[in-house]
From TrEMBL, chains A, B:
InterPro entries: MTH1187/YkoF-like (IPR029756), Thiamin/HMP-bd_put_YkoF (IPR011522). Pfam families: Ykof. Gene3D superfamilies: 3.30.70.930. This is Thiamine-binding protein. Residues 28-107, 133-211 form the Thiamin/hydroxymethyl pyrimidine-binding YkoF putative domain. The lineage of its organism: Bacteria, Bacillati, Bacillota, Clostridia, Lachnospirales. It comes from Candidatus Limivivens intestinipullorum.
Length: 214, 214
């Protein structure tokens, strides 16, 4: 019988506890995302958006399921925001599913590009574009017993900002302008990088939904 | 100034540790999912699929961002599988983002329906429908330091089943028949219910992608 190549997550850490402590990775933030424009023109819209996004400061890879950007947090956020805004059309219902993450014990130092400077490549072209978005978010702080406290912290910050719509099963619903949403995503990634060794932040954004009800 | 109503996740447990231990919830499995058929006919396809799915054994709610089913694990899985298969069209690129979860400390006993029996309402009509799917999965076992070991366990089971395509940043990619995929989802939910107090299992399924590359 063919010998199978299994994965060994949780068995490589220096402590042997499966937690990944002892890992010595650079500060790589990643975002894996998929755009779903619900129109016959979906391929054209996605390809145009990808092409219009400046990605010189991130590592990127596109597959059949999603695109991934990896690098410094601010540059990853800048590229994801640009790709989403470039894909937006006034009359097309579209969703973007995005998974932001940092600190996975199974992560590798490669497949990344950590630009030295803080000059955002896309922000000047998109900063003044406004449209309403509906969004569901879920934060997963990994490896710690008191994870619910960190989730409460970021949800309460959304309440403070006035972008919180409601709590629902397995997610929190936000409703705001696209600029406010990406400012909030930046806040969450920054807060998590400071307070958590490994987190996943799931964000699904919807625009132009024909469903009016909340 | 208006007094804000904040959330208090992690402050209600009997132990005060924010972990939710001491909670006494029934065995509610939930799945929040969104279908994204990338065609001008998206609304018709989604509504037809929702209507064709028998949901008498789950609690359900549909909003502008997603639909949620809650109840006994097998009945939730049965309804989600049916809704996805009923939305499939031979020539339409579609994704489904689905979040399975159980054991959230912030969960409530309500908004659920725990059917007594094990008779699946949808399976007979869909068991013989076959088409290939591409899928990315991510498992988040919450509140424990050795979470990577549980992730490795379910990934290695996919390897054993021959449905594993590759590991990628922040997810695992599967490639198989739709029936095999939902059998695997059932295995993961069953394994997690037995071994974890709180988990989230994120699944994004794609059919008929025009992108050939993996």
């Amino acid at each position: 019988m063919e010998k199978k190549e299994y994965v060994t997550y949780g068995q490589k850490g220096q402590c042997g506890c499966g937690c990944g402590c002892g890992s010595d990775l650079p500060a790589i933030t990643g975002c894996r995302f998929s755009l779903s424009p619900m129109t016959d023109r979906f391929a054209e819209i996605i390809l145009d958006a990808v092409k219009a996004t400046k990605t010189d400061k991130v590592w990127q890879e596109t597959g059949k399921l999603s695109t991934i950007y990896r690098g410094r947090q601010i540059h990853v956020e800048d590229a994801v925001k640009a790709c989403f805004i470039h894909a937006w059309r006034k009359d097309v219902h579209m969703t973007m599913e995005a998974t932001f993450s940092r600190g996975c014990p199974g992560d590798i130092a490669g497949d990344s590009f950590l630009a030295e400077d803080e000059v955002l490549l896309n922000e000047p072209a998109i900063r003044n574009i406004h449209f309403p978005v509906a969004c569901k978010i879920a934060l997963y702080p990994m490896g710690i017993p008191n994870y619910m406290e960190y989730i409460a912290e970021v949800v309460n910050h959304a309440i403070d900002l006035g972008i919180y719509e409601k709590s629902a099963h397995y997610c929190t619903v936000l409703s705001c302008d696209v600029q406010e949403l990406f400012d909030y995503i930046h806040y969450v990634n920054t807060y998590c990088a400071e307070h958590l060794s490994h987190y996943i932040f799931e964000v699904t954004i919807s625009v132009n939904s024909p469903t009016k009800e909340a």
